[in-house]
Design brief:
This is Stp1/IreP family PP2C-type Ser/Thr phosphatase. It holds the Pfam family PP2C. InterPro entries: PP2C, PPM-type-like_dom_sf, PPM-type_phosphatase-like_dom. By secondary structure, this protein is of the alpha+beta class. The chain has a single domain, classed as PPM-type phosphatase domain (Phosphatase 2c, domain 1, 4-Layer Sandwich). The chain is built from eight helices and eleven strands. The strands form two sheets. Strands 2, 3, 4, 5, 6 and 9 form a six-stranded antiparallel β-sheet that branches. Strand 7 and strand 8 (about 145-150) form a beta hairpin. Helix 1 (about 50-70) runs antiparallel to helix 2 and helix 6 runs antiparallel to helix 7 (about 230-245). It is globular. The two termini are about 30 Å apart.
C-alpha cells in the first residue's frame, strides 16, 4: 500500500472572526490536511440564512470529497488519479451542493434568496487545483511575489474588466458586494476551476471579502512576508488588521504553507487516464 504523499507536506492554519460590526458569523471554513483540501464559504441571505448556505456548502462538499478520496482511496492500491479526475470530482460535488442549497432556498421561506460564495483548493501531485464562485479569494505568496489567483465574480470586477471603472473606484463603490456568480442562487452553478503548480515555500491564502475589503493587497502581502515562518501569528495578525480598519464584515482566512514536494505515484490504470487527460485539459 502506498503512503499518502501529503503526509508532512502542508502546514494549514484556519481562523474565522465575526468582525466588529456583525452579530453573527456567516462564514464557514474547513481543512483536511491528509486530503489536502481547504474550503471557505461566505454566506448571504436573510436572517441566519447566509449561515445556513455556507454551512451546507462546507458540510456537503467536504463530506462528499472525503468519501471520494478516503473511503475509496486510490492510495490504497498504490496510485492516485490524475488532475482532470480531481477537477471533475470537485465540479460534481460543487454542483450537488448548489442543488441542495438552491432547493432549500426555494422550499423553505426562511431561507429564500440565500446563497454563498465559495473558494476551495485541493493540493494534489505538486499542484493546487482551485475552484471558486463569488468574491472570496485565493492568493499565493511565492518569494517576494504576492498575487491573486482567482478573479472575482462581482459587478464591480466586471465593470473594471470592461474598462468602465478603475480598480480604485471599485474599492469605493457601493455596489462592490453585488455578485455575478454564487453557490445556490441559480439552478446551475458555474465555478471557475484552475490548476496552479505548487512549490516548496509557497504560502496560499483563502479569504472572505471581510479581509480584502478592509486591507489592500500590498498590506496583506506585507503581513504574510513578515510572518511567513509563523502561520498562526500571520492569520491572527491579518484578522486583527481587518478589525482595526473597521471590521465591517465577518473575516475568515485559511493559510497553507507547502513544506515539501508531494508527487504521487500512478498505477498503470491511472497513468493511462492521466496521459489522455493531459492532452485534453484546458487548465494550465
Amino acid at each position: 500500500m502506498a503512503s499518502n504523499p501529503l503526509s508532512g507536506a502542508l502546514e494549514i492554519v484556519v481562523r474565522s472572526d465575526p468582525g466588529m460590526m456583525r452579530r453573527y458569523n456567516e462564514d464557514a471554513v474547513f481543512a483536511n490536511p491528509a486530503l489536502g483540501l481547504v474550503i471557505l464559504a461566505d454566506g448571504m441571505g436573510g436572517y441566519n440564512a447566509g449561515e445556513v448556505a455556507s454551512s451546507m456548502a462546507i458540510t456537503g462538499i467536504s463530506a462528499a470529497l472525503e468519501q471520494d478520496f478516503f473511503l475509496h482511496s486510490p492510495y490504497a492500491i498504490g496510485g492516485a488519479p490524475g488532475d482532470l479526475h480531481v477537477q471533475r470530482c470537485l465540479s460534481r460535488r460543487i454542483a450537488a451542493a448548489n442543488t441542495a442549497i438552491y432547493q432549500t432556498s426555494m422550499t423553505q421561506p426562511e431561507c429564500a434568496g440565500m446563497g454563498t460564495t465559495l473558494v476551495m483548493a485541493m493540493f494534489h501531485d505538486n499542484a493546487v487545483i482551485a475552484a471558486h464562485l463569488g468574491d472570496s479569494r485565493l492568493y499565493c505568496l511565492r518569494g517576494d511575489e504576492f498575487r491573486q489567483l482567482t478573479h472575482d465574480h462581482s459587478f464591480v470586477q466586471d465593470q473594471v474588466d470592461r474598462g468602465l471603472m478603475t480598480a480604485a473606484d471599485a474599492r469605493l463603490s457601493r455596489n462592490r458586494g453585488l455578485l455575478t456568480r454564487a453557490l445556490g442562487v441559480d439552478a446551475i452553478a458555474a465555478p471557475d476551476l484552475r490548476r496552479h503548480p505548487a512549490r516548496p515555500g509557497d504560502i496560499y491564502l483563502l479569504c472572505s471579502d471581510g479581509l480584502n475589503d478592509m486591507l489592500m493587497d500590498r498590506e496583506i502581502g506585507k503581513a504574510l512576508r513578515a510572518q511567513s515562518d509563523n502561520l498562526e501569528l500571520a492569520a491572527a495578525q491579518l484578522i486583527q488588521m481587518a478589525n482595526d480598519m473597521g471590521g465591517r464584515d465577518n473575516v475568515s482566512v485559511i493559510l497553507i504553507k507547502v513544506l515539501r514536494e508531494f508527487p504521487v505515484q500512478h498505477t498503470a490504470l491511472f497513468r493511462q487516464r492521466r496521459t489522455g487527460e493531459h492532452s485534453r485539459t484546458l487548465f494550465e
